[in-house]
Inverse folding.
């Protein structure tokens, strides 16, 4: 009987990509509902919905940092585990998995302690005002109690899809998301808990997802399993995970820095209502990019496995198809934001002033995202092939080198408009540079050298 992971190298490519990508897209879309659904309900709380929405939006950088650490261990380890599966080194793959579990436990303890201790000054630094701090503090206090669930649910789910079980990975996310959608209105409105209810619903939902992931990875249906003897911080394995994980970590953690920069700039040059527009647009950004990321992450194990197995033609064919799909996705979803911004804006607020202000700036903000599928495809390919250095350069380029400085400098000349215009300038520039990097390095990467 053929093992499930072996179909990554043998199954017809078109059907395999669909079977891997569709569950991954569904999982990514469902996962983003944790925050999106919270914000939709919070934005419609009678009397203070717009302030509550802004307050919860200010907590976004903390949530991004927490998920970034899960990506550091999960996305840094899972591609390497897939490469080892391609080499039939199952013990080596389990060692990587066990080390990731140990890292995620450590991250959970440290992150919870630090953010709980310093949450108030951190939230003010992230753009909270005296009007919104109470809502931000209520939400994050409860959310942080579930940090370990977030780490396991996000960080270990990549090891399920990495062995070819994309549907199982999707179901783990679906379980939590459905629970969250059901609990949100009950706790927010039924029990009159407001933002505290939204946070509690998220914690309970993530706990169920984490339990599902752990049950699968310790059961007989998993190709590789979590074994107690492997749950330790092996130095060599940690460094290997870190070398590859630093790229997705920077991609996600710098999103936190971007949000801080944008929120503080909007607060300085605009006020609470402008910060509210960014809370909406950050959610819309997730709605646009998450499905495309799902395609890329779903296809990634195919490239990793076949690179480990030495089947380079299959790697190239997979890459070309993936980039075309990613580009089509961002052009369609971001195109709606550019041409019909009210479609997205009215999902999150019934406040007419906030809605109109969001519609005014959304077309500019999302213009560059229309072609961002190219960068997402190339970034995922570098990651899948274990090319840590190039992946890191791309991760740093858009946000640290371009977006953050532009978001600080442009408002000095353009006022609040400059904060929004920084995004498309950074996007177009980073896509162009990424294409050049991939063109000049692809031949070397796919020259037949096997990963070490």
């Amino acid at each position: 009987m053929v093992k499930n992971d072996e179909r990554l190298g043998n199954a017809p490519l078109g059907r395999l990509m669909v079977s891997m990508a569709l569950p991954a897209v569904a999982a990514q879309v469902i996962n983003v509902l944790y925050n999106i659904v919270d914000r939709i309900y919070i934005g419609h709380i009678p009397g203070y919905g717009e302030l509550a929405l802004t307050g919860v939006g200010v907590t976004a950088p903390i949530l991004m940092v927490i998920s970034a650490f899960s990506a550091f261990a999960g996305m840094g380890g899972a591609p390497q585990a897939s490469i080892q599966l391609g080499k039939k080194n199952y013990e080596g793959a389990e060692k990587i998995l066990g080390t990731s579990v140990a890292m995620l436990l450590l991250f959970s303890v440290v992150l919870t302690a630090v953010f709980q201790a310093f949450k108030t000054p951190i939230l003010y630094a992230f753009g909270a005002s005296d009007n919104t701090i109470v809502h931000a503090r209520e939400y994050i206090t409860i959310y942080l109690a579930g940090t370990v669930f977030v780490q396991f649910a996000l960080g270990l789910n990549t090891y399920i899809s990495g062995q070819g079980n994309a549907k199982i990975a999707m179901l783990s996310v679906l379980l939590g998301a459905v629970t969250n959608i059901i609990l949100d209105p009950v706790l927010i409105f039924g029990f009159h808990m407001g933002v505290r209810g939204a946070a509690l619903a998220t914690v309970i939902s993530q706990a169920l997802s984490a339990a599902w992931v752990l049950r699968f990875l310790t059961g007989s249906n998993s190709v590789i399993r979590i074994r107690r003897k492997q749950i330790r911080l092996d130095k060599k394995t940690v460094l290997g995970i870190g070398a590859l994980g630093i790229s997705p970590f920077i991609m996600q953690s710098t999103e936190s820095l971007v949000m801080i920069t944008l929120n503080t700039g909007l607060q300085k040059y605009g006020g609470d209502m402008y910060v509210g527009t960014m809370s909406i647009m950050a959610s819309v950004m997730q709605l646009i990019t998450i499905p495309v990321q799902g395609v890329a992450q779903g296809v990634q194990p195919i490239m990793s496995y076949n690179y480990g197995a030495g089947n380079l033609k299959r790697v190239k064919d997979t890459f070309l198809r993936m980039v075309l799909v990613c580009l089509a996705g961002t052009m369609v979803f971001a195109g709606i934001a550019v041409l019909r911004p009210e479609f997205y804006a009215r999902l999150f607020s019934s406040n007419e002033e906030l809605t109109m202000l969001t519609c005014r700036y959304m077309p500019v903000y999302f213009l560059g995202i229309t072609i961002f599928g190219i960068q997402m495809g190339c970034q995922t390919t570098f990651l899948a092939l274990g090319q840590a250095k190039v992946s890191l350069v791309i991760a740093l380029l858009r946000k640290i080198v371009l977006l953050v400085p532009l978001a600080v400098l442009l408002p000095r000349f353009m006022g609040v408009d400059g904060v929004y215009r920084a995004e498309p300038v950074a996007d177009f520039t980073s896509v162009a540079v990424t294409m050049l990097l991939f063109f000049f390095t692809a031949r070397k990467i796919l020259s037949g050298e096997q990963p070490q």
Observations:
- The CA atoms of residues 50 and 351 lie 7 Å apart.
- Residues 4-445 form one domain.
